[in-house]
Design brief:
Blueprint: H1 10-22, H2 26-36, H3 38-43, H4 46-50, E1 56-62, H5 68-77, E2 83-89, H6 93-105, E3 112-117, H7 121-126, E4 133-139, H8 148-157, E5 159-170, H9 175-187, H10 198-207, E6 211-217, E7 220-222, H11 232-242, H12 247-250, H13 253-260, E8 268-271, E9 274-278, E10 281-287
Parallel strand pairs: 1-2, 1-4, 2-3, 4-5
Antiparallel strand pairs: 5-10, 6-10, 7-9, 8-9
Bound molecules: S-adenosylmethionine (SAM).
């Protein structure tokens, strides 16, 4: 029986993603980076600082999910009398509806106008829209596109001169990207494409001749609950690690055993009776 990709079940994806973020320190560390480091990066680029004065900051959010990172980015840009207009490319309706209702319910984001398009970044870019943006973010999304290099180039072309693109993506030491690249072909009838890691993306950006800087965010995923097959939370985390809907229930014992062996590899470690997976992220900041 072939397994169903998690991306084909929006509700399960949303649940698994939430549980993954709960069991890891990825979100809090990315938040810290956006709050503490992004303003510094912006202010070290005079061409980017220039548009901080424009009345309406134009943002493109690629795969915003629940919008948790977007809201922090709004805080960085939307100050004083500035408004923010964000186009959100998010095919998962469950997540984007939650994002929209959160923004509506929070007075502090009255300066934000969201235009949510329920489509993939590929279909948006294929429309060849001439719209330009001051800031584009693509945070943990490039695993889901067929050709990450083409998306980076297309997004770069949508930047205003002086505009900035933030990419956050699995570093070479990231366990989930390793699982995808190692086991994807065994899990699915139509195997996913190899996803480059952050260092490989950095080389690509370098070879394209773009001006960029990079950083790293070290994070970990607590996989302890994954060791208990009766744990619903553990099973949701397995779904996010493998990107298979209801992986524990539906995968063969052989493939489950092989993937669980990742906990004994260099991508995982044990500490205080718990099992952790490295989910370090590369940060790339490209300036046009
Ligand atoms: C791991 S989540 C990251 C969400 C958000 N950026 C964050 O970091 O909190 C990846 C998101 O990308 C979205 N996605 C998947 N394929 C996509 C595509 N081809 N174009 C745009 N977004 C996509 C998914 O629906 C999901 O919400």
């Amino acid at each position: 029986m072939s397994l169903v990709p998690l991306t084909e079940n929006e509700h399960r994806f949303a649940e698994a993603f939430k549980q993954f973020r709960k069991a890891s320190d990825q979100e809090s560390l990315m938040k810290q980076w956006i709050v503490d480091d992004l303003p510094k990066v912006i202010h070290s680029n005079p061409s980017t600082v220039k548009f901080m004065d424009t009345n309406v900051i134009q943002i493109l959010g690629i795969g915003s999910g629940f919008g948790n990172m977007d809201m922090l980015i709004f805080d960085v840009f939307g100050n004083n009398n500035q408004k923010v207009n964000e186009i959100v490319l998010e095919p998962n309706k469950v997540e984007v509806e939650k994002f929209k209702s959160t923004i509506k319910s929070l007075d502090q984001y009255r300066f934000v106008n969201l235009e949510c398009l329920p489509e993939t970044v590929e279909s948006y870019m294929a429309r060849n829209t001439s719209r330009k943006f001051h800031f584009i973010h693509c945070i943990h999304v490039l695993y889901y596109v067929k050709n990450p290099a083409a998306i980076i180039e297309a997004a770069y072309n949508c930047l205003e001169e002086g505009g900035m693109m933030l990419i956050i993506h699995a570093a070479a030491s990231h366990g989930i990207n390793h699982v995808k690249n190692t086991f994807g072909a065994k899990l699915f009838a139509s195997p996913p494409k190899y996803t480059p890691n952050g260092s490989q993306l950095e080389k690509l950006v370098h070879d394209l001749g773009y001006k960029y800087s990079s950083d790293i965010i070290n994070a970990k995923l607590d996989m302890t609950e994954c060791q208990n097959p009766a744990s619903q939370n553990g099973n949701l985390i397995w779904d996010f690690i493998t990107h298979v809907a209801s992986f524990t229930e539906n995968a063969s014992p052989e493939i489950k055993g092989a993937i669980n062996d990742v906990t004994k590899s260099e991508f995982c470690y044990r500490n205080g009776g718990k099992v952790f997976m490295n989910i370090d992220s590369s940060v790339l900041i490209i300036v046009k």
